[in-house]
UniProtKB/TrEMBL annotation:
Classification via Pfam families: ATPase
Domain KaiC residues, every copy: 138-367
Organism of derivation: Haloplanus salinus
Region annotation (Disordered) ranges: 1-126
Biased composition (Acidic residues): 25-53, 61-90
InterPro entries according to UniProt: Circ_KaiC_arc (IPR022420), KaiC-like_dom (IPR014774), KaiC_dom (IPR010624), P-loop_NTPase (IPR027417)
Lineage: Archaea, Methanobacteriati, Methanobacteriota, Stenosarchaea group, Halobacteria
Compositional bias ranges of the Basic and acidic residues kind: 9-22
UniProt KW keywords: ATP-binding, Nucleotide-binding
GO MF terms, alphabetically ordered: ATP binding
Identification of the protein by name: KaiC domain-containing protein
C-alpha cells in the first residue's frame, strides 16, 4: 500500500471526528474544512445521474494499483477465474431451485410459521439447546440474548454472516451488538458503514449503552464511513488492501452495513455478482469474522434484495415483520436460515429491539 496519496482507509479514519488519539490541535479545523468540502461535493453529486459504468471512471486510489492488476485474470474469463461460482450462467444454475417460501412438499400456506400437517408454513424440528456439541472448529457467540441459545456451540470463527431484513427490523443494531460482544472482551473491531455517518454510529451505540467512543479512543475500534459511489469505483483496490489493513489493525470482527448499497451500484447482474463474490472472498481470506447486513427482497422476506449474499455467506439470519390474519399487532421474528458446520434451531422466534439491543424470546412462540 504505497503511493503519494493517502489510501482510503487512513483518509476515512483521519476524517472520523470521534477519533482523538494521536491528533494535533489543528485536526478539528482541518476535518471541518474537509467535511464542508465533501458536503458541497456530495450536493453536486446527488443532482447528477449515476454513471452505470463505474469502471470507466477510476478513482485516484485505483490508479495506484493499475500496474498490480494489469496481469490479473478476468473474473468472468471462465474456469481459470479463481473458481468463482458465477463463471457459468447464474440464471441457469438456480433455475430449478425451490422457492424458499414454499412449505415442505411444495405446498404454500398463508401462515409462514405453522409447520403443522396440511397447514402450510415452514417446518420446525425439536432442538435441545443443552445438548452436547463436539467440534474442533473454533466458535464465537453473537452477543444477542436468546439467539445464541438457538445455536449449539456458536457461529464458526472467521465465517461470513449475513443478516437479511427489511427497513426497521434492527439490522444495524444486530451489527453493533455483534461488534460490542468482541469489544467488551478486549478484542478489536472495524465497522464499515455505507449508510450512516460515523458520528451517527457512535450515537446509536451510545443510546444502547455501548462505549464505542471509548473503544475508538483506545485504538480498538475503527468506524469508517465510505461513500457507496466512491467504494464502487475503488472496489478493486479496497478489497485488495482490506485483508492487510485488517491484519495490521488486529481486528477480530468486521461489520459491513450494508452490502445492498454496494450491489445497487452495478446495473449489470454479472458485474454485481462477480464484485460481491470477490469482495466476500477477500473478507474470508482476511481471517476476520464478518457480518454484512442486506435489505430483504420486495417479493419475499426470506431472500436478500438481489439473492446473492445468502449463497456466499456461511450463516444467514432473517429478520422480518409478521402479522396473523386475525391478529392486528405486528411483531418481529427471527429465523436462522443456515449456519455451515453448526447445529441450530429451525424455529421462528419473536424478538424485540430494546434499550439494550436485540433480545430473542426463545421460549415463546411467534403467536
Amino acid at each position: 500500500m504505497s503511493g503519494d496519496d493517502e489510501d482510503w482507509f487512513e483518509r476515512a479514519l483521519r476524517e472520523d471526528p470521534e477519533r482523538t488519539t494521536d491528533t494535533d490541535p489543528n485536526t478539528d479545523a482541518d476535518a471541518d474544512t474537509d467535511a464542508d468540502a465533501d458536503t458541497d461535493a456530495d450536493a453536486d453529486t446527488d443532482g447528477a445521474e449515476t454513471d452505470p459504468e463505474p469502471n470507466d471512471r477510476p478513482s485516484e486510489s485505483e490508479a495506484d494499483f493499475a500496474d498490480a492488476f494489469e496481469d490479473a485474470p478476468d473474473v468472468d474469463s471462465g474456469a481459470d477465474s479463481d473458481g468463482s461460482p458465477f463463471d457459468e450462467d447464474f440464471a441457469s444454475a438456480f433455475e430449478n431451485a425451490p422457492d424458499i417460501g414454499e412449505a415442505p412438499g411444495g405446498e404454500s400456506g398463508s401462515d409462514p410459521f405453522g409447520g403443522a400437517p396440511g397447514g402450510g408454513g415452514r417446518a420446525t424440528e425439536s432442538f435441545d439447546e443443552n445438548a452436547a456439541f463436539d467440534s474442533t472448529i473454533e466458535r464465537i457467540d453473537l452477543g444477542i440474548e436468546g439467539l445464541d441459545n438457538m445455536i449449539l456451540g456458536g457461529v464458526p470463527k472467521r465465517s461470513l454472516v449475513s443478516v437479511v431484513g427489511s427497513a426497521g427490523t434492527g439490522k444495524t443494531t444486530f451489527g453493533l451488538q455483534f461488534l460490542d460482544e468482541a469489544l467488551s472482551k478486549g478484542d478489536c473491531g472495524v465497522y464499515l458503514t455505507l449508510e450512516e455517518a460515523a458520528s451517527r454510529i457512535y450515537d446509536t451505540a451510545e443510546e444502547k449503552g455501548w462505549s464505542f467512543r471509548e473503544y475508538a479512543d483506545d485504538g480498538r475500534l475503527a468506524v469508517v464511513h465510505l461513500d457507496p459511489v466512491e467504494m464502487a469505483n475503488s472496489l478493486a483496490s479496497i478489497r485488495n488492501e482490506l485483508p492487510a489493513l485488517i491484519e495490521e489493525f488486529g481486528a477480530d470482527r468486521l461489520v459491513l452495513d450494508s452490502v445492498s448499497l454496494l450491489e445497487m451500484m452495478y446495473d449489470q447482474p454479472s458485474d454485481r455478482r462477480s464484485e460481491v463474490y470477490q469482495f466476500s472472498k477477500s473478507l474470508k481470506e482476511a481471517g476476520v469474522t464478518t457480518l454484512v447486513t442486506s435489505e430483504a427482497s420486495d417479493d419475499t422476506p426470506y431472500a436478500s434484495r438481489y439473492g446473492i449474499i445468502e449463497y456466499l455467506a456461511d450463516a444467514v439470519f432473517v429478520l422480518q415483520y409478521v402479522r396473523a390474519s386475525d391478529f392486528q399487532e405486528t411483531r418481529l421474528a427471527v429465523e436462522i436460515q443456515k449456519i455451515r458446520d453448526a447445529n441450530h434451531s429451525r424455529e421462528t422466534k419473536p424478538y424485540e429491539i430494546t434499550d439494550e439491543g436485540l433480545s430473542v424470546y426463545r421460549q415463546a412462540n411467534i403467536f
